[in-house]
Amino acid sequence: MVCPDHRRAQYPRRPENAALSLKRETGCQPFAFIPPVREMSTVFNTTKGIVMRNYLFILAVFGLSAGSPAGLSAVAWGQDGFFKTKVGEIDFYCVKDAADEIDNAVFAGDPEVVAKMAPKGKTPLDYNTFLVAKGNTAVLIDTGNGGNLLDNLGKTGISPEKIDAVLLSHSHGDHVGGLLKNGERVFPKAVVWIAPKELVFWNKSHPDQVEACRKAYGAFKEIVPDEKTAILLPEITAVDLEGHTPGHTGFMIASQDQKLLVIADLIHSEVIQLPHPEICAKYDQDREKSAEIRRDTLRRAAVERIPVAGSHIPGTGIRNVAVQGDGFIRSGTTVQ
Predict the structure, then answer these.
(1) Nearest of 13, 5, 6, 4 to residue 36 by alpha carbon
(2) Is the N or C terminus of the chain more exposed, i.e. has fewer CB atoms within 10 Å?
(3) C-alpha 269: how far from its chain's center?
């Protein structure tokens, strides 16, 4: 088992321009996070035997098992900055772009409650993208902000040239900033998908960026929530998570009898917002709606035992949750 400090040392800090961009847009510093994943059999690319033996020993001491979240198959954690699991016939990757920390001041809740949840005043934060692959088809969910995504993507064996489609959960800089490099498209053959309401929002806030992306990629395709995206892989269905932004979108990955829900920025700190889903980040455009959909989505995930993958969840990026009181907790055996 890898301790959090060692794990986080493997990833670069978030690019400075991304942090400054978010601060200009919102008046706040970037986001935050902390720990684990449910019942996962773990394989590390280096010192594999030692890590696995230590992990299994710890599980045995505490009487825990090394299964996978909600029936997901065994997983691979790469020190190279990516994590892989299977959802039915789908290969699902969490690919790291960067890592950072966020101050408690970002959260628009009772300061005493926030401080109780995060007594150090800040929590760690990863910047994740997600890769969904089946056969020769590869779909990327979000693009980071020009950090380490391209290097880590290449280490998965799926290079940018192999990406067929890019799905944008929303238009904040740490999700769309990796579409272009020096004004040129990063993913040569990819078609870009975005929800219509989100495109309107993006065009109002950053029209030059939208125009540059259109020039590089051509016309965007429309994501229709709650319908099959028809973007080469029918296993992907868009889910409306409006609140963080007007067209904030999640993605349900379903294959055979397994599911995984990409919740994007539904959670900005699991430490604070799982037990207190009513607390919003100051980045949330519609805080009332954001809190409501966070609670409803997490409740569904808990009841139906669907793992969730978050854009800013550290480590593997995937969690299982369970209902506890008016909020939620991480459930099952966890691995940093």
Answers:
(1) 4
(2) N
(3) 12
Model confidence, pTM: 0.80
Sign of the alpha-carbon torsion through 179, 183, 186, 191:
positive
**Domains located in the chain, CATH noted:** 4-330 (3.60.15.10)
**Rounded distance between C-alpha atoms, residue 126 and residue 13, angstroms:** 9
* Alpha-carbon span 146 to 131, nearest angstrom: 16
- The one-letter amino acid at 276: H
Q: Which helix (H) or strand (E) holds 222?
A: strand 221-222
CA angle (298 as vertex; 292, 304 as ends), nearest 5: 130
Nearest to 74 by CA among 64, 83, 62, 61: 83
**What is the CB neighbour count within 10 angstroms for residue 9?**
10
Tokens in use for 233? Answer: 């892989």
Handedness of CA 104, 320, 266, 22 (dihedral sign): positive
**Concatenated DSSP letters of 105-134:** GGB-S-HHHHHHH-TTSEEEEEEEEEEEEE
What ranges in the chain are assigned the alpha helix state H? Answer: 4-8, 16-26, 48-61, 111-117, 149-155, 173-176, 196-205, 207-217, 270-273, 287-304
CB 221 within 8 A of CB 192: yes
Q: Give SS3 for 193.
A: strand
> Among 297, 233, 229, 230, which Cα is nearest to 265's?
297
| Cβ-contact 257, 306 below 8 angstroms | no
Distances (CA, A) of 263 to 41, 45, 80, 177, 282: 23, 27, 24, 19, 18
pLDDT per 10-residue tile (average), the chain, 336 residues:
31 41 34 28 29 31 37 56 95 95 92 94 92 97 96 94 97 98 96 97 98 97 77 88 98 96 96 96 96 98 97 93 96 52
